[in-house]
Amino acid sequence: STARKRELTVADTTCTYCGVGCRFELYGRGEEILGVRPADPDRTPANDFSTCVKGKFGYDYVGSDERLTTPLVREDGEFREASWDEALDLVAERLTEVREEHGADSLAVTSSSKSTNEANFLAQKFARQVLGTPHVDNCTRLCHSSTVAALKQTVGYGAMTNRINEDVGETDCYLITGSNTTESHPVLATRIVQNVRDGADLFVFDPRKMTVADHADQYTRTRPGTDIAWLNGMMRHIVEEDLYDEAFVEERTRQFDDLVETVEPYTPDLVEEVSGVPPADLERAAETIARSETCVYGWAMGLTQHSHGTRNALAIANLALLCGHVGKPRSGLSPFRGQNNVQGGGGDMGPIPNNLPGYQPVDDEDVLDRFEASWGVRPPDRVGLRITDMFSAVPGVEETVSGRSEADAYGGDEPGTDEEDRGTEDPGADEGYTPENTDVRGMYIVGENPALSEPDVQHAEEALEALDLLVVQELFMTETAEHADVVLPAASMAEKYGTVTNTERRIQLVRPAAESPGEARTDVAILQDLAGRLGFDWGYGSPDDVMDEINELTPIYGGVTHERLEERGEGLQWPCWDEDHPGTPYLYEDEFNFDDGLARFVPSELPDELYPLATEEYPFTLTTGRVLYHWHTGSMTRRGTASMKQVPESFVTIHPEAAERLGVVDDEYVSVESRQGEVVVRANVEETSGPDVLFIPMHFVHGAVNRLTKEELDPLSKIPEYKVTNVRVRPLGRE
Ligand code: SF4
Q1: Which of 36, 42, 573, 653 has the largest count of CB atoms under 10 Å?
Q2: Is the pTM of this model over 0.90?
Q3: Ligand 1: nearest atom to the Cα of 340
Q4: CB of 637 sitting under 6 A from ligand 1
């Protein structure tokens, strides 16, 4: 009613954007968000009073005219409006048809790191229980899956080991690499910069000199994709100078000798030749880090999004262990997670093909027994396809061109594939389902936009078109939804109740401040309705009931109840085993997450042959990433006034020397071309990267950078190589 619409709603909630997990009060009226105000600092553990520009001004998308308000069904090539009953009956019928004709494993589900833990738990339950398919994954595959694969092998849990404020914000020293912290995790970056001003040391190694490097004691420009060389070189120096933490290595780790042997060839000369890191920089950083009582190792996509991403993450984990900087306060391994719920919804809740919720292996009989007892159906016990492989498994789609074959890329075995050495049963690799032996014919996509986020999007688009059935559950008619047979309108984060888990494993509440437009419904409601039409009466009365089931089936969330979160402003950090458990602020204080309690050094070497940074035909290396004002594929921020005012379109950064060589002037349009495709974008002539490295952000449809990237995957985690693409540039003149 109009009276109700005029009512002001104030929700104590968690930010919809990044993994820092800032909390604030969100003001809504009807379908609109009016603004954001700081909340009581007792209830804002990650941010106190701070928020960044996205948290403060990034809510236009909620009330956007472009929100989907009714289910849409494709008929004769066009979308037409449909009732929920019609749309969901159709989806149920078509899913059943595909399953009957081609088997359950011809269906795949992708869930969303932007939705709640409760919704993600249900998305994987929908895949495994209702559809019976093992193929369920989400966009964490594209960001930190290599981190997860590496940390599971070395320390046990695929997660940040420490806290934002008390540890990252208070350490003596930082090594930050491959992270544009100031733009991607702004409030966290503010903490770091403040602590550096108060005297902490900061070392930044990165191909791009981002703002965080302005505050560094030392910024070292590296060549993209060569991090293993300088990380191993540092470890070699630390061992040689006897600067490592002997007691820690002796008492809390194993396989030290293997590490020493592996890093031995990484002499300062070799490191400089491969990575471009001068010996003096290497030694200074290595010595300061090793001598620091505490140190935080921060990284993001620059380290992970490589076709050897797992090896990169192993190398940084090895370094932190060597220096004894894990398992104590003010230290630790800090992979900065991207989306607001990529840790929880993307990982902890199990919408990943190798793990049931809580990182429980899909082939563990005891675990399967427990799920079967609860669900009445035994979940599939084989590891399904990763999202990056799902698109290659659609029949009739040509193979994508990578520029070289996977066999050329890797010589020898992947590190850590020996079971005893890695101390875990499944780091992510599996020989079962592959795109070669699997046909994916139907996809159910919850809140993902692979038509912009996949590498080589031409290939993803072709696959989306070739599917027998594509259902997309979304806020907007995204580039992916345009290919769908049925589009289901979903509620945004500002319209629902549930939990999200930030980068420091902290589970916090989100609460509704606005009403959903038209007939849009929450992911939980849609999935439950659809499950019912497919013969599974879930019977949840509210997200609280879903959390009860999470408690029962996910040991690390055993004591995380909505009731406790309502009372505790500071949320709860997992593992939280039962209702009396206070949560775990930092991991591995007493033991690592292995049976023997010891961490593993899993030595990591450069691949035999690195992907070439340039060729004669394609003389530049292109890297991709984010900018402060936008978010991922831009489906939310491209609908926001503040963000579009600041950065209205895509661009490529070009170093002045290269610009001069090419005859490119600032602000003119240029063509950037790779083996995969071509885009036209505006040139930003600036010195962020070296003369051979270009950068294009990932947020735009015109100038979509993933028209250029290739589908070359890390063999263990299947993360794509987004950071090294060979390209050439042609000026087009001012327009
Ligand atoms: Fe939101 Fe991240 Fe900005 Fe905090 S730093 S307000 S969580 S986008």
Answers
A1: 573
A2: yes
A3: 7
A4: no
